[in-house]
C-alpha cells in the first residue's frame, strides 16, 4: 500500500509539474505573440506619422510652387531658374526631411543641387553657359514637381484602395 501511495504522489507531482510547464509555455508564447503584435502596431503608427509629415512637406512644396515663380520666363522663349527663391522656399523644406524623401525625389533634388553649383562655377566665366545650366535647372525642377505630384497621387490611390 505504501508503494501505491508513492506512485500516486509521484504521478501527481509529475502531472502538476507537467501542467505547470505547459501552461507557462503557452502563456509565454501568447505573451510574446501579443508583444510582437504591439510592436508591429507601434512601428506602423511611427511609419504612418513619418509618411504624413513627408506628405505635409510635399504639399507645402506644391503650394509654394503655385504661390511663387521659380521658373521665370525671359526673352526669346527662354526661362530663368530663380535659385534664391528655390533655395529659400523649396530646397529648405525638402532638406528638413531629406532622409525620409522618396528615392526619386531625393535623386532629383541632388541633381538639381549639382546643376546649381555648376551654374555658380560658370557665373564668373561664361554667361551663355550659366543660361544653359539654368535652363537645365528649369527642366529638373519641373521633374521634381511632377515626381512629387506622382508620389501624392500614388498615396491617394493607396488610401482609396484601403477605404474601398
Helix percent band: over 70%
Number of helices: 4
Mean pLDDT: 84
One letter per element, helices H and strands E, the order comes to HEEHHH
Estimated share of beta-strand residues: under 5%
**Rg on CA atoms, Å:** 31 Å
Which spans of ≥5 residues are poorly predicted at pLDDT below 50? none
State the shape: rod-shaped
Task: Give the tally of β-strands.
Answer: 2
Structural class based on helices, strands and sheet pairing: mainly alpha
Distance between the termini: 73 Å
Largest sheet: 2 strands, antiparallel
Describe this structure in words.
- This protein is mainly α.
- The protein is built from four helices and two strands.
- 84% of the residues lie in helices and 4% in strands.
- The protein has a two-stranded antiparallel sheet with strand order 1-2.
- Helix 1 (2-67) crosses helix 4 and helix 3 packs antiparallel against helix 4 (127-163).
- The longest helix is centred in the first third of the chain and has 66 residues, at 2-67.
- The mean pLDDT is 84.
Quick tags:
164 residues, mainly alpha, two-stranded antiparallel sheet, 4 helices, 84% helix, 4% strand, rod-shaped
Question: Secondary structure elements and their pairing?
Answer:
Layout: H1 2-67, E1 71-73, E2 79-81, H2 83-96, H3 103-122, H4 127-163
Antiparallel strand pairs: 1-2
Q: How is this structure best summarized?
A:
With 164 residues, the protein is mainly α. The chain has helices spanning 2-67, 83-96, 103-122, 127-163, and strands at 71-73, 79-81.
Amino acid at each position: 500500500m505504501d508503494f501505491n501511495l508513492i506512485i500516486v504522489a509521484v504521478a501527481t507531482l509529475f502531472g502538476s509539474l507537467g501542467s505547470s510547464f505547459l501552461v507557462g509555455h503557452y502563456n509565454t508564447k501568447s505573451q510574446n505573440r501579443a508583444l510582437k503584435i504591439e510592436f508591429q502596431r507601434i512601428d506602423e503608427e511611427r511609419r504612418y506619422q513619418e509618411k504624413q509629415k513627408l506628405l505635409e512637406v510635399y504639399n507645402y512644396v506644391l503650394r509654394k510652387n503655385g504661390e511663387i515663380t521659380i521658373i521665370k520666363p525671359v526673352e526669346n522663349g527662354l526661362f530663368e531658374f530663380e535659385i534664391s527663391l528655390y533655395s529659400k522656399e523649396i530646397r529648405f523644406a525638402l532638406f528638413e526631411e531629406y532622409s525620409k524623401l522618396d528615392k526619386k525625389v531625393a535623386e532629383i533634388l541632388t541633381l538639381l543641387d549639382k546643376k546649381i553649383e555648376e551654374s555658380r562655377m560658370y557665373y564668373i566665366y561664361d554667361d551663355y553657359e550659366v543660361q544653359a545650366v539654368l535652363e537645365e535647372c528649369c527642366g529638373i525642377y519641373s521633374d521634381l514637381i511632377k515626381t512629387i505630384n506622382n508620389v501624392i497621387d500614388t498615396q491617394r490611390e493607396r488610401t482609396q484602395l484601403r477605404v474601398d
